[in-house]
């Protein structure tokens, strides 16, 4: 690591103290899978499923139902392993722009062209990206990684990039699932990955206005932990919050599971600072709302790294909730569960806005994927005594937070509505388990890949009247397409409603299949996902609720926002970045 | 004449809908074997059969829904609510009042399927069928495919419609094979027969008014009723694409209303798919044979009445041969619509608000409907008699022209029939000709089944001169004049024509090409012949099932068949008739000739006789008089031109082409004739086919 200068090791020692992301993330994180290196699912020598490490509540535990579920759902067999091939030497040497590197050195901003650093930043977490890495197939990767430490560092880097015509790709948490981080194969210039992880400070907290000014490279868990230390929270909790960054949230229009209370990222930001090739864009004040023409924040929100680097954000914060309560409801079927959520959204939400300041959080989600985690007793009770069909029932997990009185009042209201739709309260444990799974579920995919099972989730948003139809049709389309493409085992094709709005809901689809016997499983996967997305669009679903477009979904952008819409976006790009310095080619 | 509008239909490029309809050698078409379902009925108790345990599998295992619950679902649907509100707003009537009306419409419409009635029919129909028919043959593989389809998707059954028998027969078959009983869209005219109407209702029929023009509420109740049954998979929905019974045995131009409704749940994403199953029902002898002929000749059809049906008891003592029912390959609407319809067009308005189908959807449904009718045609079983009828008619006309009625020698007829058998097979006909029986026997047994239509004297066969038309019973006075004589003969001719017509779809495309070649001068190139072909095809697109926009494809298919059978040589530039091709081409041109002449006569009528006051209503009676005159004067030899079906189709074509226009005159439906254009069309049909490439027309 010859080119890392003195500053790096200095900062590194600081990092280790505060548990931030290190420069060399591969030291604590998997480079070809999800999350921390020490945390993973595996089948131990007794054939039991186990989750390793110490970081999660599930860590070190045996998960009894998982093996049966895994084998039963996918037809997977523990005898048939498909371990990753470790081959990081296939990385092509970097194409460096010498003049740029020379001037960069003089700025003192740390950088590296080490192969491992570059490979780590060449991919997100789409199934095809991870699969390729596991197979040791590595395509175009950034030629250089640079770690700015603050806004001014970014200004210098962008200036140099413009001067020397170097391509910049901002890199935050690296949790993209839209091929947004992939280096465009047609890019001939030197590609520099701009890693924001060292811009991770809370610069100030304003308790009078309940805002915090934060550097955009901070990842969700650090932001939440640091704010908690002062008694505050943002309430923004996307499933990826352990690793995803504030800048990434802004750049993709992220959504968190508690959005019903706190709002999505666009509701949470008060002020954004972004460095572009034209210069820095920011508003002149922190007014809570302005009527000053189209909101320029909305050029930045969802720009997916095509216009510049978000460096600092002022965000709303709130006092930590005094009381939290989990809950869950079992419904005889998905249809009734959805009907209940719709009713809750109708009845509780307005009320909810009134008491917004008291900080109630309610986060129901209907799922059928977790049914296997219901404990045995309850299962027997539900199926035998209430006549629920175990293959059709579904669970809604709930989280209430805020002041105790209001929480209890709300809880009652929700359970009363649920009862009208045949829902049975299924306890706090199941609710809590549902939330815990949110964070570990991403690790499950890596386990699958060890045994010829490939899986992915994708999302959409859709009006209420379309929810059931879209679920039914997309699930059926997945099964249908798999059959057409010679997948031998019936795939896992399921869904859940993860967010509710006044006018609709966010729906997640889960698709997994056993790819034994297929010569090109990734291609099959891609075709099926493509077909599923077409089905989503044909059924009135959106191109994406919060994952973004990236390069994976950009073929549908013009039909999504119309040609005029694309023209508007392009003209902004042409003005802000005429030489395509931010050349990741996302969106269009 | 504006020729660009004449050939406007050429613009559409590709209407290939069905995988099995792609251009390929029709002889290679695979068809299933038949089983006779009456055989078991002859060997076991009908009563036990009618009372046996009946447990059909339903769509995704849904539990059946009672007729009452179904009505409630319909009345409570968002669409009905919306339309009731709308009607109430527009008319100022109270919501309750409109609601009441909706409920009454539904009451009048809805089926009330009862298993006991079905069992009653199972019993009686077994008796009746065994008396009337030698066999009822069904392709059991098709039944299996249907069973599979019913479990996986909502299913629509689309039988051909040649007889009243059709829908009872369908239900009878499904009951026999333990399949879910269909609910059937029936015309309101059945309701005239009180008792029978209710019986049919209890066996699954629901009744729709023949016309309900702009009645929003009626349309809403009707479409919601059909959609509710379909998308919940309570029962397969059955209706007749052709809308009514074909009196001519030619397939009728499909009606789109119900098909639109049936596809709607898929297009709006309410179901994953809908499967359409074309069913071809072929009767060796049609029960209504003479009735149809008389109807076409202008003797008004007897109003459907219960007593009328039973008066037809004479029918029961006759031999009607066999019935073949072929359940075709289920057609997935999802697959059909791939790349043709953007389902996203329903994203921006709530789906329960009724909307006129977009241009895109309209043409998709139209193309699909044509494709489905062609799928029905392709699987129609043709009996040897169909070929004999074609040959006898051609001979009859030849005799007529030469003025001597000699008929055909049996052995000559046999020789020609064998020749035609081979030709039709090469063209892909689904011909049931018993190859193990010597041809003379095949011919004589076919003739004997249809003995009412032919006479055999001294080894020569000809069309019977007096027959079915008049119940030539005792007390009937002898014919009084040439006109009655002519009409009497015409009944026989039209009956025969209806059998010949069964084979028309096999010969149609080659016949259009043959006529185009025939009309062309010897120096005509391929492009000129194509232009003539397109002209004819366009002219006759109300007469025959010709998929819109498939001109090039039809031309190529015709070329392929004629080249394959050695009748033509087609090069890049030229089309040449071979030595052995003359016989084939002569036959084919004779197939089309009655229609060419018929359309010419209609044109002649319009340019000579039509006056300012001619209305659409008067058209048929007056053109009929004109034709009778010409037939009697010997200036026209095809008696079949008397068919009102042909006359109406010709008028429809002229209206479509703009040669005749309907104007709002003193009388509604007054016809305004563009005499120049009509004259030039007549001229073209008379042999001066346009060979010039009209502007903006598809080239080969």
Throw out a few tags for this protein.
heterodimer; A: 588 residues; alpha+beta; eight-stranded antiparallel β-sheet; five-stranded antiparallel β-sheet; 22 strands; B: 700 residues; alpha/beta; nine-stranded mixed β-sheet; three-stranded antiparallel β-sheet; 27 helices; 16 strands; 51% helix; disordered N terminus; flavoprotein (chain A); transit peptide (chain A); FAD (chain A); Alkylglycerone-phosphate synthase (chain A); acetylation (chain A)
Task: Please characterize this protein's 3D structure.
The complex is a heterodimer of chains A (588) and B (700). Chain A has helices at residues 6-18, 66-74, 98-107, 115-120, 127-134, 151-164, 220-229, 246-252, 259-262, 265-268, 297-300, 334-354, 376-385, 404-420, 428-450, 467-484, 521-538, 557-576; strands at residues 41-43, 49-51, 62-63, 111-112, 144-146, 167-171, 191-195, 202-206, 211-215, 232-233, 269-276, 279-281, 309-316, 318-319, 323-331, 361-362, 365-367, 394-402, 424-425, 453-463, 492-500, 504-514. Chain A is of the alpha+beta class. In chain A, strands 15, 16, 17, 18, 19, 20, 21 and 22 form an eight-stranded antiparallel beta sheet that branches. A five-stranded antiparallel beta sheet of chain A has the order 8-9-13-11-12. A four-stranded mixed beta sheet of chain A has the order 4-5-7-6, with no helix packed on it. In chain A, helix 3 packs antiparallel against helix 6 (151-164), helix 12 runs antiparallel to helix 14 (404-420) and helix 16 packs antiparallel against helix 17. The longest helix of chain A has 23 residues, at 428-450. Chain A starts with 5 loop residues before the first helix and ends in a 12-residue tail after the last helix. The model of chain A is unreliable at 1-18 and 349-377 (pLDDT under 50). Chain B is of the alpha/beta class and 700 residues long. In chain B, the strands form four sheets. In chain B, strands 1, 2, 3, 4, 5, 6, 7, 8 and 9 form a nine-stranded mixed beta sheet that branches. In chain B, strands 10-12-11 form a three-stranded antiparallel beta sheet. In chain B, strands 13-14 form a two-stranded antiparallel ribbon. In chain B, strand 15 and strand 16 (670-673) form a beta hairpin. Mean pLDDT of chain B is 87; it is low at 1-23 and 466-475. The chains are: A alpha+beta (588), B alpha/beta (700).
């Amino acid at each position: 690591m010859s080119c890392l200068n003195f500053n790096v090791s200095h900062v590194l020692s600081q990092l280790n103290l505060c548990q931030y992301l290190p420069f060399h993330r591969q030291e604590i994180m998997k480079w070809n899978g999800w999350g921390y290196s020490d945390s993973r699912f595996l089948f131990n020598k007794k054939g039991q499923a186990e989750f390793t490490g110490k970081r999660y509540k599930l860590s070190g535990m045996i998960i009894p139902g998982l093996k049966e579920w895994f084998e039963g759902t996918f037809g997977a067999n523990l005898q048939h392993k498909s371990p990753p091939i470790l081959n990081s030497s296939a990385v092509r040497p970097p194409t460096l722009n010498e003049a740029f590197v020379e001037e960069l050195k003089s700025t003192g901003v740390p950088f590296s062209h080490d192969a491992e650093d570059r490979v780590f930043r060449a991919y997100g977490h789409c199934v095809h990206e991870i699969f390729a890495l596991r197979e040791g197939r590595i395509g175009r990767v950034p030629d250089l990684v640079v770690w700015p430490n603050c806004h001014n560092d970014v200004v210098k880097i962008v200036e140099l990039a413009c001067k020397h015509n170097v391509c910049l790709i901002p890199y935050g948490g690296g949790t993209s699932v839209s091929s947004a981080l992939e280096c465009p194969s047609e890019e001939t210039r030197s590609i520099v990955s701009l890693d924001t992880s060292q811009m991770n400070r809370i610069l100030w907290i304003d308790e009078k206005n309940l805002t915090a000014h934060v550097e955009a490279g901070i990842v969700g868990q650090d932001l939440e932990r640091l704010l908690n230390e002062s008694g505050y929270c943002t309430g923004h909790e996307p499933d990826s919050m352990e690793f995803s960054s504030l800048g990434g949230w802004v750049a993709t229009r992220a959504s968190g599971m508690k959005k019903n209370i706190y709002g999505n990222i666009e509701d949470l930001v008060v002020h954004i600072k972004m460095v572009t090739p034209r210069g820095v864009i920011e508003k002149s004040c922190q007014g809570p709302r302005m009527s000053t023409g189209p909101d320029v924040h909305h050029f930045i929100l969802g720009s997916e790294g095509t216009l510049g680097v978000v460096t600092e954000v002022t965000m709303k914060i709130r006092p930590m909730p005094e009381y939290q309560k989990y809950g869950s409801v079992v419904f005889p079927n998905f249809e009734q569960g959805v009907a209940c959520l719709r009713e809750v959204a109708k009845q509780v939400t307005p009320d909810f806005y009134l008491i917004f300041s008291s900080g109630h959080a309610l986060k129901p989600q209907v799922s059928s994927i977790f049914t296997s985690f219901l404990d045995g007793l309850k299962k027997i009770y539900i199926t035998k005594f209430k006549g629920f069909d175990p293959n059709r029932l579904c669970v809604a997990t709930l989280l209430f937070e805020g002041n105790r009185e209001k929480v209890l009042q709300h809880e009652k209201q929700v359970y009363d509505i649920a009862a009208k739709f045949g829902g049975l309260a299924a306890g706090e444990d199941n609710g809590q388990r549902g939330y815990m799974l949110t964070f570990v579920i991403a690790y499950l995919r890596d386990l699958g890949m060890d045994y010829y099972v490939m899986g992915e989730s994708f999302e959409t948003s859709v009006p209420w009247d379309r929810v059931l139809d879209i679920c039914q049709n997309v699930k059926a389309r997945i099964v249908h397409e798999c059959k057409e493409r010679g997948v031998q085992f019936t795939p896992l094709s399921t869904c859940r409603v993860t967010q509710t709005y006044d006018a609709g809901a966010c729906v997640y689809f889960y698709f997994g299949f056993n790819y034994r016997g297929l010569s090109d499983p990734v291609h099959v996967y891609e075709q099926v996902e493509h077909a599923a997305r077409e089905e989503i669009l044909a059924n009135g679903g959106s191109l994406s609720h919060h994952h973004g477009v990236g390069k994976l979904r950009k073929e549908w952008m013009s039909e999504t926002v119309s040609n005029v819409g694309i023209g508007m976006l392009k003209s902004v790009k042409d003005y802000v970045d005429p030489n395509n310095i931010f050349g990741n080619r996302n969106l269009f | 004449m504006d020729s660009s509008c004449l050939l406007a239909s050429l613009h559409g490029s590709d209407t290939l809908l069905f995988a099995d309809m792609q251009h390929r050698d029709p002889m290679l078409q695979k068809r299933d074997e038949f089983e006779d379902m009456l055989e078991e009925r002859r060997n076991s108790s009908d009563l036990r059969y009618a009372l046996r345990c009946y447990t059909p599998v339903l769509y995704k295992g849904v539990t059946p829904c009672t007729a009452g619950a179904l009505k409630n679902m319909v009345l409570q649907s968002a669409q009905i609510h919306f339309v009731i509100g709308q009607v109430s707003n527009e008319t100022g009537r109270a919501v309750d009042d409109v609601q009441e009306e909706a409920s009454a419409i539904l009451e009048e419409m809805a089926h009330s399927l009862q298993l006991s009635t079905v069992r009653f029919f199972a019993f009686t129909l077994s008796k009746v069928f065994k008396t009337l028919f030698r066999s009822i043959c069904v392709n059991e593989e098709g039944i299996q495919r249907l069973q599979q389809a019913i479990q996986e998707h909502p299913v629509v059954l689309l039988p051909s419609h040649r007889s009243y028998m059709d829908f009872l027969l369908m239900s009878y078959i499904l009951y026999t094979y333990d399949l879910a009983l269909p609910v059937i869209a029936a015309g309101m005219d059945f309701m005239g027969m009180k008792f029978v109407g209710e019986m049919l209702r209890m066996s699954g029929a629901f009744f729709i008014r023949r016309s309900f023009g702009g009645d929003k509420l009626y349309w809403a109740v009707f479409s919601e009723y059909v959609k509710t049954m379909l998308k919940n998979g309570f029962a397969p929905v059955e209706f007749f694409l052709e809308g009514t019974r074909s009196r001519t045995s030619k397939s009728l131009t499909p009606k789109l209303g119900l098909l639109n409704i049936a596809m709607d749940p898929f297009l709006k994403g309410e179901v994953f798919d809908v499967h359409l199953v074309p069913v071809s029902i072929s009767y060796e002898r049609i029960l209504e044979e003479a009735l149809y002929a008389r109807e076409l000749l202008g003797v008004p059809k007897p109003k459907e009445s219960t007593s009328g049906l039973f008066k037809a008891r004479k029918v029961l003592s006759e031999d009607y041969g066999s019935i073949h029912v072929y359940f075709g390959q289920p057609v997935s609407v999802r697959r059909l619509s791939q790349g043709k319809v953007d389902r996203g067009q329903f994203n921006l308005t709530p789906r329960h608000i009724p909307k006129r189908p977009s241009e895109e959807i309209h043409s998709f449904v139209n193309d699909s409907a044509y494709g489905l009718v062609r799928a029905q045609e392709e699987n129609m079983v043709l009996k040897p008699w169909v070929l004999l009828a074609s040959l006898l008619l051609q001979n009859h006309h030849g005799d007529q022209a030469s003025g001597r009625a000699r008929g055909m020698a049996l052995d000559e007829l046999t020789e020609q029939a064998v020749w035609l058998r081979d030709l039709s097979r090469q063209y892909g006909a689904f011909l049931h000709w018993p190859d193990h029986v010597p041809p003379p026997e095949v011919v004589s047994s076919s003739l004997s089944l249809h003995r009412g239509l032919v006479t055999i004297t001294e080894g020569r066969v000809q069309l019977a001169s007096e027959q079915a038309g008049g119940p030539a019973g005792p007390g009937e006075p002898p014919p009084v004049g040439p006109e009655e004589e002519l009409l009497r003969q015409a009944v026989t001719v039209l009956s025969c024509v209806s059998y010949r017509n069964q084979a028309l779809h096999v010969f149609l495309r080659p016949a259009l090409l043959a006529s185009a070649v025939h009309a062309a001068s010897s120096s005509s190139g391929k492009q000129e012949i194509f232009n003539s072909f397109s002209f004819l095809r366009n002219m006759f697109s109300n007469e025959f099932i010709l998929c819109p926009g498939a001109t090039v494809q039809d031309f190529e298919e015709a070329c392929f068949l004629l080249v394959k059978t050695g009748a033509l040589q087609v090069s890049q530039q030229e089309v040449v008739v071979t030595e052995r091709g003359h016989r084939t081409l002569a036959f084919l041109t004779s197939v089309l000739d009655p229609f060419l002449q018929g359309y010419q006569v209609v044109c002649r009528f319009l340019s000579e006789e039509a006056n300012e006051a001619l209305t659409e209503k008067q058209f048929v009676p007056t053109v009929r008089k004109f034709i009778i005159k010409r037939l009697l004067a010997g200036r026209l030899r095809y008696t079949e031109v008397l068919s009102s079906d042909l006359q109406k189709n010709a008028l429809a074509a002229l209206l479509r082409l703009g040669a005749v226009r309907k104007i709002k005159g003193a009388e509604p439906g007054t016809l305004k004739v563009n005499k120049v254009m009509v004259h030039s069309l007549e001229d073209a049909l008379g042999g001066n086919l346009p060979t010039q490439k009209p502007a903006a027309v598809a080239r080969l």
